[in-house]
Design brief:
This protein is an all-alpha fold and 281 residues long. It folds into 2 domains: 12-50; 60-280, MetI-like fold, CATH 1.10.3720.10. 85% of the residues lie in helices and 0% in strands. α7 (125-136) packs across α8 and α8 runs antiparallel to α10. The longest helix is centred in the C-terminal third of the chain and has 44 residues, at 237-280.
């Protein structure tokens, strides 16, 4: 470079490609924020565990996880829990959507069942867990019923709100042109309520997961809740905390890896349906 030539600035793209630039970009990203949150929680956990003997540190939990996974206890417990959990969720999804559609489309049904649904929302999962154990005993029906009873009201309320938010002009026009009610629900109502369905379903998953743990805690003979209670009864804090963390990590991974991608795909389908409707008009 000659003496009379001004120094040229390094291109922004080249600076971003350098390792410090990539690190800074990662630190400002959503993934960087999540990683920092997890790292901060682990550091705080480690410091607290080093201060108090009764709190296991992350390395102890990791060793316990490996022992439970390698022996097959972890997978057998989760398989037992997931059978009842997913069956209860399936029942809650079908019943909740049907109930929500009825509440949103019919004033008579809304007046008749609205208070019952509100009561269902108010009853905590621990009450349902105790009730189903009294009704069905220590059987497979107890966790399935606990999940279904806990999750159904959340889905029904969200679906009913979505139905009431559907365009009344389009509903009246479809009725005036004699469109069958099955087509009205499929092509008009359902695309309008899918975001409400998934909002309710995500609440239902969390509440239902808590309910299945409580049902297995009080009346199970196998499963994650049973294992958690067993280690608690044994006064083994490492085992108890580890199983609680297994329980929490699973529901977080289910939400991030399954529910969020399905929601994005469903909302894209809803947007495509709306574009076809406007294009046809």
């Amino acid at each position: 470079m000659s003496a009379g030539t001004a120094p040229t600035a390094e291109p922004l793209a080249d600076r971003a490609a350098t390792p410090p630039g990539r690190i800074a970009a990662f630190a400002r990203s959503d993934r960087g924020a999540h990683a920092a949150s997890v790292l901060t929680a682990l550091v705080c956990w480690q410091l607290v565990g080093m201060r108090y003997d009764r709190i296991p540190v992350p390395t102890e939990v990791a060793d316990f996880f490996w022992s439970q996974a390698s022996s097959g206890v972890l997978w057998a417990a989760f398989a037992n829990t997931l059978d009842g959990f997913f069956l209860g969720l399936a029942i809650a999804l079908v019943v909740g959507i049907a109930l929500g559609l009825a509440l949103g489309l019919s004033n008579l049904v809304r007046l008749f069942l609205n208070d019952i649904v509100v009561v269902g929302l108010a009853v905590p999962g621990i009450i349902w867990a105790l009730l189903v154990i009294l009704w069905f005993g220590f059987s497979f029906k107890a966790p399935v019923s606990a999940v279904a009873l806990t999750a159904t009201p959340f889905i029904a309320v969200q679906v009913a709100q979505g139905v009431r938010g559907t365009s009344r002009e389009l509903m009246r026009m479809s009725t005036a042109f004699g469109v069958p009610w099955q087509k009205r629900i499929r092509h008009l109502v359902l695309p309008s309520v899918m975001d409400y369905v998934f909002a309710g379903f995500r609440f239902a998953v969390i509440m239902g997961w808590n309910a299945v743990l409580l049902a297995e805690w009080f009346g199970g003979r196998a499963g994650v809740g049973f294992q958690t209670r067993s280690w608690y009864d044994a006064n083994n804090f490492t085992g108890f905390v580890s199983w609680v963390l297994f329980f929490i990590v699973f529901i977080v991974l289910l939400d991030r890896l399954v529910l969020e991608p399905v929601a994005r795909r469903t909302f894209r389908w809803r947007a495509d349906a709306g574009e076809q409707l406007h294009g046809g008009a």
